[in-house]
Amino acid sequence: MAEGYFDDGTVHVELGAHVFATPGGRRRIVRLQPHSRPGAVLDSGGGVLELEVTGQRLRANLGDAERYIYEQLRALATSDPGELGFEDNRGYRHVFGDSVCLGGIGEVFGYKFVSIRFDFESPEKSSVPAWGSVPAAPGAYPGTATFQDYSAGGVNLGLGGAMRIEMRRSMPLREVPRARGSRASVPPYGAEFRFVVEAARVAGAETLATDIEDLQRQVSGRVNLVANGNVYRGVLLEGVRPRHTDKRHTGLEIVFVQDIARGEADRHTTTTAAPTTTTTTGL
Q1: Does residue 237 contact residue 197 with C-beta atoms inside 8 Å?
Q2: Which one of 37, 106, 116, 122 has the lowest number of neighbouring Cβ atoms within 10 Å?
Q3: Alpha-carbon dihedral of residues 121, 123, 124, 125, nearest 10 degrees?
């Protein structure tokens, strides 16, 4: 009950428990004419439904929860238009046909509870597809645990860390003028992932400013991001945003980017269930 799925014929992924979708809509009503000519109001324009979808899951540990988010978003990152279905707590179902996933954001609360928000778009239609099936949720991923041992390129990122995973891609639906509906504008080539690590830094003998500078110097090029028994390969450090303070400790938001291409081999591995040994800078 209260589950959802996405199925494009190749990708068939469950979207979690307690799934619900809120559709909004837009239509191309006004068409602009060339210079010095008036605009024309169309009798009907192509309609697009903008869908905010939320799913939740209780997982085994922090690493397992983060891996669950990554695998869901990765499956959707290179998917084609497909059917998006969800069921409420009373068993009522609805399916949106030819839907495309534009992105998603996943977070973990209490080390086990996953909450993901997906962004979908679907053509406005006068009918809906038949209900399909919800695949079983994956079991616990081996080698994961709640270590909070975030490191990149062998450099420890801080203490008491947490991570948010985001996915975004460009595949918007384009309204069809003088017709009901829309279609995907470009082929789904791939997507961009962001790993946002929030951790505390404590400076040693050096100042906190030097510690943050050293962190950015040492994490250079494509590196492996290690987190709770998972390894995300080929990530790039995008930026470091500290909380403004004059103390010897502060919270950092450290952002890494990973590009995913369609047909590319998986760039994720699982380590053995033991914390990694990393270089420390000012910790």
Answers
A1: no
A2: 37
A3: -140
Residue by residue, what is the 3-state secondary structure of 14-77? Answer: EEEEEEEEEEEEEECCEECCCCCCCCEECCCCCEEEEEEEEEEEECCCHHHHHHHHHHHHHHHH
Contact between 235 and 258 (Cβ < 8 Å): yes
50: which 2 tokens? Answer: 């903008």
Q: d(Cα 92, Cα 114) in Å, to the nearest integer?
A: 24
Three-class DSSP category at 78? coil
Placement of tokens 């789904």 in the chain: 188
Q: How far, in Å, are 37, 48, 224 from residue 221 at the CA level? A: 53, 40, 10
CB crowding 13-35: b at 16 or more within 10 Å, else e: bbbbbbbebeeeebebeeeeeee
Reported residue count of the chain is 283
89-126 residue pLDDT tens:
888 999 999 899 999 999 999 999 999 999 999 888 87
What whole-number distance in Å separates Cα of residue 22 and Cα of residue 141?
Answer: 31
Question: How far out from the chain centre does Cα 250 lie?
Answer: 27
Please answer whether residues 56 and 16 qualify as being in contact, where contact means their C-beta atoms are separated by less than 8 angstroms. Answer: yes
Q: pLDDT per residue over 5-18, tens digit each? A: 999 999 999 999 99
CB neighbours (10 Å) of residue 135? 14
Report which DSSP code applies to 279.
B
Considering the entire predicted model, what is its pTM? 0.86
Torsion of CA 228, 229, 231, 236, to 10 degrees: 20
